Amino acid sequence: MKDCPKYPEITVGALIFNNEGRLLIVKSDKWNGQYCIPGGHIEFGETIIEAVKREVKEETNLDIDNIRFHMIEECIFSKNFHDPEKHFVFLDYSCKAKNTDVILNEEAQEFIWVSLDDLDKFNIEKLTLKSIREFIKNNDQ
After folding, report:
1. Alpha helix (H) residue ranges in 16-66
2. In a designed cystine with 129, which of 20, 22, 95, 124 is the match (CB 3.0 to 4.6 A)?
3. Which domains, ranges and CATH numbers included, belong to the chain?
4. pLDDT at 141
5. What is the DSSP code (8-state) at residue 104?
């Protein structure tokens, strides 16, 4: 772990829902070809909400609103990430897509809008799946 940062990297992730209540998941080579949610690093001087909006726009071309904090997760030395010597703190948010014209950048290879009832049909990265299941649990009450 010679090049491992001294501190964890703070990132944002977005559970993006369309008007039909379907969730956007993206297949990423960075996560061993598994499905995950769009997101990335918070830039210096940027607010968390600005980061969520920017990352979603960069990675999917979507504009979002109704952004709400969802949960915090830690990802420490994941074997599923292309660089297993990383320590991330994920700040996950839920939001609504204002448009549905997805255009992926180079960070993802495929996308799909999924029903929350069909999650088991997809190879979803385990921390992403945990976040989605926690969202379902918190919104079924």
Report:
1. 48-60
2. 124
3. 15-108 (3.90.79.10)
4. 46
5. -
Please, are residues 61 and 103 in contact by the beta-carbon 8 Å criterion?
Answer: yes
Q: What is the reported pTM?
A: 0.92
Which residue type is seen at 108? A
pLDDT grade for 91, boundaries at 50, 70 and 90? very high
At residue 39, the pLDDT reads 97
81: which DSSP letter?
A: S
Please give the Cα distance from 99 to 102 (Å, whole number).
8
Give 110-135 as a DSSP string: EEEEE-GGGGGGS-B-HHHHHHHHHH
Kindly report, residue by residue over 1-29, the tens digit of the pLDDT.
556 558 899 999 999 999 999 999 999 99
How far is Cα 2 from Cα 24, in angstroms, rounded to an integer? Answer: 36
| pLDDT per residue as tens digits for the range 110-125 | 999 999 999 999 999 9
Please, which residues bridge with residue 35 across strands?
27, 124
Burial of 100 (0-12, 13-18, 19+ CB in 10 A): middle
Say which amino acid occupies 102.
Answer: V
Angle at 7 between CA 80 and CA 44, to 5 degrees: 100
